[in-house]
Amino acid sequence: IGDNTWANGYNGIACAEYYLRTGDKSVLPVLQYYCDDARDRQFYGVGWGHWGREINPGYVSGGLMNPAGAQVATTLLLAKECGVNVDDRTMLGALQYFYRFAGRGSVAYGDHRGEGGLGSNGKDGMAAALMQVATGARGDTEVYRRARNYFALSMLDSFPALVTGHGDEGRGDAIWRSITSAYLHDLKPEAYRTTMDTLKWWYDLSRRPSGALGVATAQRFDDEGSGAGVAIAYTAPLRTLRITGAPRSKFAKDFTLPVNPWGRPADLAFLSIAPDAQEPVYQLARKLGDAYSAEPNYAGMSAAELAQIARHRNYMIRAQAAKALMHTGAFGELEKMMADPDPRVRRAACDGLTDYRYWFAVGKKPIRPEDVSPTMVAALRKMLTDPNEAIYTVDGALMALSCATPAAVAGCVPDILPWTTHEEWWVRQSAFRALATAAQAEGMAAQVLPVLAEMLRREQRPTARETMNGLLARLAPTLKMDREIVMAFQRAAAETEIKPGPRAGEGGYYVQEAALAGLRANPASAPEMARSVRARFPQLQTRYLVKVVEALVAAREQLPEAARGELTDVLDADYRRELIRRMNAGETPLDTILTLTQLKHPEVGWREVGRPVGAERVWRFTSFEPQGADVMHPREGKRFRDVALPVGLANWYLPEFDAGQWTSGKAPIGKGVFTARRGKKAAIENQSTWGDGEFLLARTTFELDAVDCDYYRLGVLAKQGYHIYLNGQKIYTYIWWSDAPEYRKIGLGADAVKHLKKGANVLAVYANAAYVDGEQVGQLDVRLEGLKKEDLLQ
Fold first, then answer.
1. Residue ranges of E strands in 558-692
2. CA-CA 20 to 30 A from 772: which of 161, 406, 442, 547?
3. 171 DSSP assignment
4. What is the mean pLDDT of residues 10-37?
5. DSSP letter string over 405-438?
6. Mean pLDDT value across residues 260-267
């Protein structure tokens, strides 16, 4: 019971399956809770985040966590069958959201387009189970059966990617592959049998002497709880659960679903799993690459061969083959594909023209505008205007059209406009791209810009909005209509809807992003943008207001003196006052208030506290290598963990511990060179050598004359995770990693500050190194800083 999407989804499925097997109504109140919680915490009307009741649209794409949300969606359908009161809008929104990924790339990680890798981290299997439950509705459920089969075949096809997965080492894939592969036991017995026989070694390796299973290839998740999902591979063909195809329960209640939840009849072609005589998917993927591989070498593959592969049953393979045709200049083959009677082939041709990047839509090397022939433009227009064309093909056609010359696209504007208000954001995003190209044609900007501005103001999905912000900002120097474009952003910031309650984070993020895009397009607009956002204070969450302030302060440096003074007055009188009000109400936007205070009082700020100062402080430290079960292979990136300490070091962090025999030296303590990705930040020089071990224990002592600051924070330089202790008490833990050598600021709450005292204080840190190119790299330093409220409020 709670707001954890992961727990609620899996627990909800278990509750519903139990009720449908037993009729025990004692679990129905729990199931009702999960359904109500799903209703209250759903975002964009389609999905859920990791946990909690606030969305973070800037996380990945839109803040959704589909590997968790898929199970919540399945819970809702099962609960409907159990007779629980399920909010239909919540359930149907999620069902449509996941359904539309079938045949259009693997299920996305967040709220973005379908992905283009061989595997799906198990998400296709999760969606297959959702569709399986949907087939239990009364009436015509054929589309859900077909979607289930496509997702299930995707899991079979992707078996070489079994042991890969973001964040879970392939555990999600292992569980849901085991649950859903059996959907094809009767439909494609040869494919099912071949794949399961190929993986027999893996299932055997996962067996344990107790009779249970683990997940042999997942070091962090090789437990019997996870292994229970893997074990379902042996029972799934028996169809004893609703998610594995069990017959309708005598305790089930009738419910219905839309006959076709997404698209037109022609879109059903994308769900086909009809066999073809071509090579297995994984072999073709090795030849053609995928969304996450470098451009392959197409030498030795003829245009005729690629054109044949572009008619494969698998969406990713079709797209990759069509991209190969474009990159090798086989434009005639693409023209033929655009006239093909199969909408899947027409979409593949469009993907070829755009160098389609799946998650990221248009690729880095699309067809050159001058290579988009009149025949291609005519074919694309036909796709846009044909009332029977598949929606997913229209989406591809709009993207492909954006690659043509502005003059060619300008003639298509009447055909594009109807798609600017389509219910699917994929289509709206593509229509915006096409219109942005048309706007660059002579005499078209005045006609098209108002449409683009209205689309931006109205858009309620973050990935589409991000595209619109970026394209519109980049149009400013091209069209020399800076003021009109900035006004579009100002209008979006002023008028974008911010919904009340948990969904306030959606609209607030859009206001923030509109303001930031407007400032990027023209920093001189900062005073006007500041006033536009000021009107949204009552609805705008502090996290978004902070981002806007940062952008306004940065733009301020580019303004002439008079405009800079005007903006400074607004920031000081309105923004600073509003943030102080929020601080007094319990929020802590300290650094932003300080930034605004420094506009008129540059002398105030955080100050390092303690004697000697951090750069002169002497540390005592020792390193060690983990032993036995604590050893982790160097290939593992996320390495922070609690390991057994060497003998005699159990109380190493206590003030009274004698570390006199340890190495001494100043910080940073390190080994190797900790550098940022792509050299964005220079390395910080080590002052002492870490030692040979992966793990480091370090202690230092500093003196305080008084504990008289109102706020304290740590500045931590570390390559990976750490535990920090103050006077024997753990005050902070970080378990991830850092990509840049910098002092990460960590605010200390009252529970930590209470351990500070006048006189001697002992700071102790447990940290680990990482492996970079086979060598250990680690770095550590910790500083303490303080701030007085009287300085903040000057």
1. 607-608, 618-624, 663-666, 669-671, 688-689
2. 161
3. H
4. 98
5. -HHHHHTTHHHHGGGGG-SSHHHHHHHHHHHHHH
6. 98
Q: Which residues of 536-561 are buried (b: 16+ CB within 10 A; e: fewer)?
A: beebbbbbbbbbbbebbbebbeebee
Average pLDDT, the chain: 95
Helices of type H across 496-576: 504-521, 526-534, 542-556, 561-570
In this prediction, residues 112-118 reach a mean pLDDT of 94
β pairing state of 729-734 and 722-726: antiparallel
432 pLDDT more than 80: yes
Mean pLDDT of the region 677-694: 89
| 615, two tokens | 């750069």
CA-nearest of 728, 729, 725, 737 to 766 is 725
Q: Are 601 and 790 contacting, i.e. CB atoms less than 8 angstroms apart?
A: no
Structure-token pair, residue 524: 């001189």
Q: What is the pLDDT of residue 293?
A: 84
Domain map (residue ranges) of the chain:
1-99, 140-249, 293-442, 608-792
Distance spanning both ends of the chain, measured CA to CA: 46
pLDDT at position 94: 99
Displacement of CA 47 from its chain's centroid (Å):
13
Longest Cα–Cα distance of the chain, Å, equals 82
Q: How many CB atoms lie within 10 A of CB 82?
A: 28
Q: With beta carbons less than 8 A apart as the criterion, state whether 314 and 281 touch.
A: yes
d(C-alpha 79, C-alpha 73), whole Å: 10
Distance CA 687, CA 387 (A): 70
Confidence of residue 166 (pLDDT cuts 50, 70, 90): confident
Q: What is the pTM of this model?
A: 0.90
Q: Is the CB of residue 765 less than 8 Å from the CB of residue 734?
A: no
**Residue 371 neighbours by CB distance under 10 Å:** 15
SS3 (DSSP) at 467: helix
d(C-alpha 443, C-alpha 440), whole Å: 8
Number of neighbouring beta carbons within 10 Å of residue 51 = 16
Do residues 345 and 337 make contact, with C-beta atoms less than 8 angstroms apart?
yes
Rounded CA-CA distance 537/576 in Å is 12
- Domain 608-792 superfamily per CATH: Galactose-binding domain-like (2.60.120.260)
- Reduced to 3 states (helix: H, G, I; strand: E, B; else coil), residue 29 is helix
pLDDT digits (tens, 9 = 90+) for 621-657: 999 999 999 999 998 888 999 999 999 999 999 999 9
More confident residue, 503 or 413: 413
Give the separation between CA 104 and CA 285, rounded to whole angstroms: 16
Tokens of 794: 């000057």
Neighbours of 200 (CB within 10 A): 9
CA distance 228 to 596: 55
Degrees, nearest 5: CA angle 590-595-597: 90
Q: How many angstroms separate the CA atoms of 417 and 147, rounded? A: 31
Q: Give the separation between CA 383 and CA 430, rounded to whole angstroms.
A: 14
Asked if residue 431 lies in contact with residue 402, where contact means CB atoms within 8 angstroms, the answer is: no
Instruction: Name the token pair of 511.
Output: 């206001």
Distance CA 219, CA 690 (A): 27
Number of H helices, E strands in the chain: 31, 13
* Residues 405 and 370: beta-carbon distance below 8 Å: yes
* Three-state DSSP class for residue 729: strand
CA gyration radius, the chain: 29
Q: Which tokens belong to 38?
A: 């799903």
- Please check the confidence at residue 679 and state whether its pLDDT lies above 70: no
Q: Which DSSP category does 702 fall into?
A: E
Is 293-442's fold the same as 608-792's? no
Between CA 312 and CA 318 the distance in angstroms is: 6
CA distance 736 to 159: 29
Mean pLDDT of 465-473: 95
